[in-house]
Amino acid sequence: MRIKLQRSNIRKLEPSLSRYEVSDSEIPSLRLRITPNGIKTFILLYRNAEGRQRRYTIGRFGDLTPERARGIAEVKLAEIKLGGDPAAEKKEIRKQAEREKLSRLGDFLTLKYEPWASARLRSGGATVKRIRSAFAKYLDTPLSQIGPWSIEKWRLARIDEGKAVGTINRDLASLRSCMAKAVEWDVISQHPLEKVKLLEEDNHPVVRYLSPDEEARLRKALADRDAEIAAARKSANQWRKERGRDLLPEIETDHLTPMVILSLNTGMRRGEVFHLRWEDVDLVKATLTIHGKKAKSKKTRHIPLNIEAVTGLKKWKKQQGKDRGFVFPGKDDRPFDNCNKAWKALLKKAEIEGFRWHDMRHHFASQLVMADVNLNTVRELLGHADLKMTLRYAHLAPEHKAAAVAKLVSES
User: Fold this and answer.
1) Which residue, among 227, 241, 209, 228, has the nearest Cα to 356 in the 3D structure?
2) 352/43 Cα distance (integer angstroms)
3) Alpha carbon distance 228, 345 (integer Å)
4) Pairwise CA distance, residues 3 & 13, whole Å
5) Dihedral angle at the C-alpha atoms of 96, 180, 152, 129, nearest 10 degrees?
6) Cβ-contact 104, 141 below 8 angstroms
7) Considering the chain, what percentage of its residues have pLDDT values greater than 90?
8) How far is 146 from 171, CA to CA, in rounded Å?
9) Do residues 65 and 82 lie in contact, with contact meaning Cβ atoms separated by under 8 Å?
10) How far is CA 283 from the centre of its chain?
């Protein structure tokens, strides 16, 4: 359909069930597109220098008069004859505007990387949080300006703060992965940290585990804490009873004791404990399953439970009164994200220093090695991808056997 595109004719055009177009009788490549909801838009249909058909949106009727649209079409047609490509140029302008909008680290994290990471990465939210915290001073800096010298200054400052080499490397690795996505998504043209290497670190650092005395103090602190919790609940119920109010369920503990007992006896990572579900715990067969999608190695593994772990989980299950969902539910029945406050208070009460939550995993492995369990079995229980990570515990075996070897020497 071809008509002269002028106000009176355009107003007569009614929307249809599907979109349609009307050509201008004066400039046939100028068209008016009418959508089912009545929106009328001027577009220019043309072929670029390579012979490919293109569509250039001029603007809406109402915002533009037919005369103004026709004038723009004539200018664009002249540019096309000289080799121009208005649609491609407009697309590039939009892409450039998008790049400028996303150029700063903070904006890129918020608008692009965080939504993707949260949906696609197992610990995407934690990764973004790590980048925001570690590189807070660079959030307003364009990605392309965070180069090798910026990172070198950042690393020196982190070392001066006493940060461990492993922590610094993990922070930098998170930022590098983020920037790699910025390149992939055409936000920046090249990776500014591509040649920046991670710091060399000791792959077999000193393993921190509990001494017998420390373990005894930790367990006593847990028992004392549970006694206080149970006493507080009984006191609360007595108060409610005296006032004729409904009583609260009796409790013997909260989440911390079963979490710690499970960690000491299985070597599970903190995230694995937080995301553990009752459906993956078999208290009859005394095993639990860590699924690959929640495991660092991406491989499913089955962990046997000893009598202490089984007893602890049975008590917790009875108190919880359910057999489905998260074993340790957080707020709104979501998994825990941290229990730092309770953990630090427990360590303070037990008078234990320099012992992290993750060190319970080291304690578990260390006790196995010192009990003469072979390293490959320890590797399988920990879920290490290969034996290299497990070898950090190898030195404990000869140390533990030193006393036995010493008996070969007769006393003088």
Assistant:
1) 209
2) 73
3) 14
4) 11
5) 100
6) yes
7) 61
8) 14
9) no
10) 31
- d(C-alpha 235, C-alpha 231), whole Å: 6
Would you place residue 395 in the very low, low, confident or very high pLDDT band (cuts 50, 70, 90)? confident
- What is the C-alpha separation between 219 and 350, in angstroms, rounded? 8
Name the pLDDT band for 99 (thresholds 50, 70, 90): low
Q: How far apart are the first and last CA of the chain?
A: 115
Burial class (CB in 10 A: 0-12, 13-18, 19+), 1: exposed
How far apart (Å, rounded) are the C-alpha atoms in residues 147 and 360? 38
Three-state DSSP class for residue 287: strand
What are the structure tokens assigned to 187, written together?
């936000």
Query: Is 376 within 8 Å of 394 (Cβ atoms)?
Result: no
| Residue carrying the six token digits 């140390």 | 399
**Distance in angstroms (rounded) separating the CA atoms of residues 321 and 317:** 6
Other CB atoms within 10 A of residue 401 CB: 12
Contact of 309 with 266, CB cutoff 8 Å: yes
